[in-house]
Amino acid sequence: MQRTLGALARGSALAVTLGLTVAVMPLAASAEVVKIAFVDPLSGILANVGQNQLKSLQFTVEKINASHAAGPGITFEVVPFDNKASPQESLNALKAAQDQGIRYVTQGNGSGAAGAIIDAINKFNERNPDKTMLFLNYAAVDPDLTNSKCSFWHFRFDADTSMKMEGLTTFMAKDPKIKKVYIIGQNYAHGVQVAKYAKELLARKRPDIQIVGEDLTPLAQTKDFAPYVAKIKASGADTIITGNWGADLTLLIKAAKEAGLDANFYTYYAGVTGTPTVMGASGAEKVKMIAYWHQNVDQNAFEPTYVEFKKRYNDEFYATAVWTEMQFLSDSIKKAGSTDPTKVAFAMEGMEEKGTAAGDMTMRKTDHQLQMTLYIATWTKAGGKLKYDVENTGYTFRTDAVLDPYVSSTPTSCQMKRPAAT
Amino acid sequence: MERALEFFVISLLNGVSYGLLLFMLSSGLTLIFSMMGVLNFAHASFYMMGAYVAYQISVWVGFWPALLIAPLVVGAAGALFERYALRRVHRFGHVPELLVTFGLSYCISEFVQLIWGRAPVDYRIPAVLDGPLFTVYSSAFPTYRVFMMGVAVLMLIAVWLLFTRTRVGLVIQGALSHPEMVEALGHDVPKVFMMVFGGGCALAGLAGVIGGNAFVTEPGMALTVGSIIFVVVVVGGMGSLAGAFVASLLIGIVQTFAIALDYSFVTLFARAGVVLTPDSFGYPFLKLTIAQVAPILPYLLLVLILIFRPRGLLGKRED
Amino acid sequence: MAASHRTLRFAPLDLGQWAAWSAFVIALIVAPLVFHSSLALTVLTQMGTIIIVCLSYNMLLGQAGMLSFGHAVYVGLGAFIAIHTMNAVTHGAFWMPTALIPLVGGFAGAFFAVLFGYVTTKKSGTTFAMITLGIGELVASSSLMLPEFFGGEAGITTDRVIGKPVFGITFGPQIQVYYLIAVWCLVCTAAMYAYTRTPLGRMANAVRDNPERAEFVGYNTQRVRYLVVIIAGFFAGIAGGLAAINFEIVSSENVSTVRSGAYLLFTFLGGVGFFFGPIIGAVIFVLSFVMLSEITKAWLLYLGIFFLLMVMYAPGGIASLIMINLRVAKYGKFGRLWTPYLAVIVAGIPLFLGIAAMIEMIYHYQLDSANGTVAPLFGLAVDTATPTPWIVAVVLVAIGCVLMRHASRFFKRHWDAAQAEIQSAIERSHA
Question: A57: which of A3, A66, B112, B203 lies 20 to 30 Å off by Cα?
């Protein structure tokens, strides 16, 4: 009796201890929520683009949390901030994020805002080295951000303007039918840079191509593109290069169709939210774009995610850079064994990912610019092998060429100042 | 030679059609101003409302019913606003009147986004009006532009007939200059004001029906045309419908042709043998071509007119 | 003989003024100690600059009767010149302490006011308004075309920590910037108040009220307006310089017509008839833009509706509402108004809640429905797909409308009675 009681007591003591330990264990293993500030326009002219990309990011985070890709117990949370596409509002958003203890920031719509964020984060990290912040840029394509303004705390997941033009011109150089090119763009840094790189690179690769005209229109102000189309016609151009986005692109394409302009458009942003809807039939077989992914790429590793997103939101998940950046982030956290931005940054630079949503990718260490595959695609009627149509228009993209990372890779002048490795 | 002629003719047609659309937009504004002395800042918002309502009706029923119904809806909305808000504010003076229309423009913009979302909507040109009507050498001129011009001209004639040939028009003209006298004669002047405001908004709505599918229908469309219509009204002469007509055609044609001119001060100096480099003083200004400056030419015109001829080209009164 | 030259002067101590100014100074000093989060500090700093902008705008609108649609031009151009100066100082071109940079902005603003003002002040009234609109659009459009000066889309950036610290002040931390701006705000407010007391300030009022008569008295109205524009431009430029220091970035949106419109809107909301009105307007400006937009997606709609109601029912702005209530209190009649005010507030609550609920639910339905139909509403999770919340909202609005009708009639009765009593009291004191 004594012995059984004693055994019982010891047994129950052991059971209680074990039980307590098991109960306490999840607390001991770090259950950490990594917050990511999403700073982009959620109101104003870019609202629909910003909302689409916010949804894309939230969807991505949901999937990554479910798969514990960053490690056991680590989940992500998206905190949206509306910067109204303004660099100054982005700084306010940054301050609010700092107040909430958020260490990761992502943004993409507008290189002006991106530049302001890089500047502010540089200063903040210098003044507060124990509370460093990291900036993941998924769409701001000003080459300066990885050249003269390059920063250790900035990682870019979209191909910049020079890279896209490098890819585009390599493709164009192989087409003997292109003889006269017209460049039209929006009159601000982006449009000016597209024109500059287009002229430079075409002169190098196909000196026989004539640049028959160049125009810069004020941003988002021109309603009537018919005069520009008339000018393009008068110049005899067979190809038009433009970095336009939004209404500036759709109105241009519509005006061209109306005037019966028989020229091909080489664009950057034909696939962005809202443009396919308005482009519709008027762009068929005439509009090409260069992008890191589209709905009908071969070996579409992203297909199931895209289909699920479309079913849930009836919207297109085309900004796969958002997925890519989260993939890199979670893998870097796993590799660094920590969520501290400084350690994660050291883990992320030079990282390689093979077989991702769009082929093999490398985060170049020198300037933190992602090296990636690019696709040249034409806008055409959906059907047959082209399974997915864009924004329920009945039209979609068809791959014309696949450009390996080395094709679009451009040199950099970045002299990066790195902090002491912790 | 052929190419130059083709370019000239097409540009002229483009300029005139754009100018006529501007006129449709600004005629309502001129009417409201000449009647009530109120500069309606929400005018461009009524244009946007017209486009969206027409889109919705064309989705439910079709384009042609929309052409008739949408302006009426917008006009009714304008009349309601005048009755319940503007009239209240009238006694506080001109600045509050202007500000109440300012506030209204914010509200309309938000309502439109609330109902139709923040993305552009697919408001299409009806199939029968799509495509080129005729070609000048090798350039096609779209049918829809001709339709736009036709509607604008018809509208001008209708409004002119209304003012000069009908009884209502005479009452309105009287109320324009002597409202108290007209009221003393037994006419319901506040009701006349309400009708004129509603009518002006209906004209803006009509412009929206016509312009919304040629140019993109999206929440930002009011901002892009907002300032230009004020330029038209001021340059034409505040209170003069004929002035607005002349001014809109002038602006349309000048802007269209300016785009074709790739000359700047740098090229001018180069012709004279003086070579300017990026280090020269004022280079950023001098290298701007006329084509790049074309979109701000209307504002330049506005400032010049206000300095040298403040009552506008054909204006009757100067405030 | 010296004694006979002495005159007797009696100037009673204006306690109200002393109290108001002291309260202002104390508020400026104490505010960051009460609200000390980083975001709150940014908000307070921005309020400091916008107060100067709105006060300078009121010099044109409220005091001189000049409706301008292009005030952001002077603020923005002052900011650009200030930031270029800061960059020049950083590169060692010359020396200037950061604390004096706003003065550079001020002179820049005044310079552009001299330039543009000559053209704009030739006429008054609606013509003046239109020409300021034209110039505002011109400058805004050129801002993207001249990237050398305006920095293009990205704007011009700078570092406000220039050179060696003076007394340990580097202006790196936000709190130091706040106090710098607070000092400038105080100085500028005092200066602008002093201006209203000068002959020029008074003549501006005269030109506003009756230009013809002012001419008769011998003043050139155009000259007066020109001088007012220059002085307003000076203070606007100071505010621009302060903004450049605070944000360390200036971009084309600082000169945009949207900004000009916002200055107009909020100055008017604050109240153009009183000196302190724009200060209230500035506070609301910063609060709405920075904080309201984070609370609700429908902030612009609320702002628009609020503005409409203010223009329709209280065109004198919030300042006028405060003043008329103070006036009633001064005559001791406020006691009878407590209950009517309470009634109006009680009636207003369900009305406001119902309308806000409907707006928020519609916004959620439009924008967020893909993430589920449950919307967060006043801390409750509400399922917008079910009819219950909608019915509740409609009922609330209905109740609110009925209550409001009665409450407003009740209020009006008491208000009119109070006003009548005050009127008779005034007449009796005159008799």
Answer: B112
